[in-house]
Specification:
This protein is 36% helix and 13% strand. The protein is α/β, with parallel strands linked by helices and 308 residues long. It binds zinc ion.
Length: 308
């Protein structure tokens, strides 16, 4: 049977039940006072789907309160369709495509996509490379840095730095204003366990920070060396291949990416990469993981437009 024929994609009641089971795995929790247990479902004929009432503070609420769905008039079943499409499309899906597929306006589709990217954002602070695993670090360039003249060094492009934990397969990416020792060291030290083995290319900005880890393996890309001649585990091929998925997606689907939105696109590609098929995560499981991330990620239209 097609995944898309599941009732939560078509029936609003089923959509609420699906979201509730994932946002409230232990039963409903009042978003106003935090209590649980004494919560009643309102079932009157004129009651909207999913409305509950808290027995303690007496306030009504639905599962949408405090999530990316709050204050949205888009039916929950369409949100679930959009989330499934974004979670399962390897290179992403454009706001235009969502607009045509879901039958919502382009503006609504754009806003939904950005909210879904917020849900994809990984708030985890657990360092990579715990237990002595290998962590690859590298930078890539994309798009255009506003106001910078075109130079050979790539300064006129937007700068991205990423880390991949080879054991867990997870990826974390960051937008940088400058690529230099200070910026690179800060990210590496904040996100990589000291017991890890750091894997980089020969770039000089990794030399000093690399010395703080149990080992620092580096290749010499400039000399055509992509895997160390001395140790086949020393390479950055994992992160390089993740960059190529990111770049193909950004070129093909999201042609114009503003710097102020780049971190959200990175969150999207990191999310899919960290939950990819090769790690045993199928499309349905990936969409469910995404759904677990909707809480506490409310994004207003103003913040989506740029200030945040
Ligand atoms: Zn309450």
């Amino acid at each position: 049977m097609s995944v898309l024929s599941a009732p939560h994609f078509h029936n609003e009641k089923a959509a609420y039940a699906y979201v509730e089971a994932r946002v409230w795995p232990e039963g409903p929790v009042c978003p106003h006072c935090g209590c649980f247990g004494r919560i009643y479902e309102l079932k009157g004929k004129s009651t909207r789907i999913g409305v509950r009432k808290c027995g303690d503070c007496r306030k009504p609420f639905t599962v949408k309160v405090g999530t990316i769905f709050e204050a949205s008039h888009v039916p929950l079943r369409l949100w679930l369709q959009a989330m499934f499409l974004m979670a399962s499309s390897k290179k992403g899906i454009s706001a235009n495509q969502l607009h045509r597929t879901l039958g919502v306006t382009l503006k609504t589709a754009w806003f939904m996509a950005h909210r879904i990217r917020e849900a994809m954002r990984d708030g985890s602070l657990t360092p990579f490379g715990q237990g002595g695993g290998a962590v690859e670090a590298d930078e890539t360039f994309i798009g255009r840095e506003p106001g910078e003249p075109i130079t050979r060094g790539g300064n006129h492009k937007l700068k991205v730095m990423s880390l991949v934990d080879r054991d867990s397969g997870r990826k974390r990416s960051f937008v940088l204003d400058f690529i230099n020792v200070k910026a690179i060291s800060e990210i590496v030290l904040a996100n990589v366990s000291r017991e890890a083995v750091l894997m980089t290319d020969e770039a000089r900005h990794y030399v000093k920070v690399g010395a703080q880890f149990s080992a620092h393996g580096h290749t010499n890309h400039a000399a055509g060396e992509y895997v160390s001649r001395f140790n086949p585990l020393v390479h950055t091929n994992t992160i390089e291949s993740s960059f190529s998925i990111f770049k193909r997606g950004m070129r093909g689907i999201y042609q114009h990416c503003d710097k102020r939105h780049l971190h959200r696109y990175l969150a999207e590609f990191d999310f899919r990469y960290s939950n990819r098929i090769a790690l045993g995560v199928n499309d349905v499981a990936r969409a469910d993981t995404l759904l677990a991330g909707v809480v506490g990620k409310r994004l207003t239209y103003q913040t989506a437009r740029g200030q945040a």
